[in-house]
Write a structure and sequence with these properties.
Number of domains: 2
Number of strands: 9
CATH superfamily of the largest domain: 5'-nuclease
Number of helices: 11
CATH class of the largest domain: Alpha Beta
């Protein structure tokens, strides 16, 4: 299958990423291909990183030691950046994954994208929007259910319909995607909408608390949704209905 041919390289900034979410990260990446390179960077003598030890062995992640050469300075991002650039030029990778909430990686992401590669980001809500938006896809870790965790302890906060409607960027993305794929009656396939949005911005419905894009769109009462016998969904902007009725 196509996904099985995708080669993925994962680079983890252990200083800025929670070890408890590695289950989710590995599971998510398995949807897109095979993870061939797995590296985590940090000063492993620092007791703050002790939580990573079990995950490193369980998921065959190669630890890369980076000493804190200057007090108060994080040298991990420099070492990780060098390795990523070496991999970009010397390995045939299709997808690069950066696990961090550090906005200093933003220029690196744009550089990788310029080579025609896909970049996935995983981080916490504190990650700067410039970094989030630069990635092909970025997922907020604290918004996602941890494998094996009680649902009530880790359920993501779900944006209401009014909150979604007030997000002008999101609304423009959805409406532009519908316009790009609609037929003469204004209907567009949900799959084409999702693809169009992904080509424009870092987007995942789970960051808004919805499992799927269709669920998110249904929560906004500005769109009409019609299921097909094939199981696919069609979506139409209700403004289009008013135009057709004139």
């Amino acid at each position: 299958m196509e996904n099985e041919t995708k080669r993925i390289a994962v680079f983890i900034d252990a200083d800025n990423a929670p070890a408890k979410m590695i289950d989710f990260i590995v599971s998510e990446l398995a949807k897109f291909g095979v993870v061939n390179i797995r590296k985590a960077y940090g000063n492993w003598k620092n007791p703050c990183l002790k939580g990573w030890e079990e995950s490193l062995f369980e998921y065959a992640i190669q630890p890369v030691q980076q000493f804190d050469l200057t007090k108060g300075k994080n040298a991990t991002d420099i070492a990780m950046t060098i390795d990523i650039m070496d991999t970009l030029y010397n390995k045939n990778m299709d997808i690069f994954c950066i696990v961090s909430s550090d906005g200093d990686y933003t220029p690196l992401v744009t550089r990788i994208l310029s080579e025609g590669k896909t970049v996935f980001g995983f981080g916490e809500r504190k990650a700067p929007m410039a970094f989030v938006n630069a990635c092909s896809k970025f997922l907020y870790l604290e918004e996602l259910k941890q494998p094996g965790s009680p649902k009530e302890e880790s359920a993501p906060s779900r944006a209401t319909g009014n909150e979604l409607k007030s997000d002008s960027k999101l609304m423009n993305l959805i409406r532009n995607a519908i316009d790009a794929g609609q037929d003469d009656d204004g209907w567009a396939h949900l799959a084409s909408i999702g693809s169009h949005i992904s080509n424009q911005a870092s987007f995942d419905a789970r960051n808004y608390g919805y499992k799927k894009l269709g669920d998110l769109i249904r929560a906004i009462d500005l769109f009409e949704v019609k299921p097909l016998e094939s199981g696919q969904l069609l979506v139409r902007d209700k403004r289009r209905i008013r135009q057709l009725n004139k």
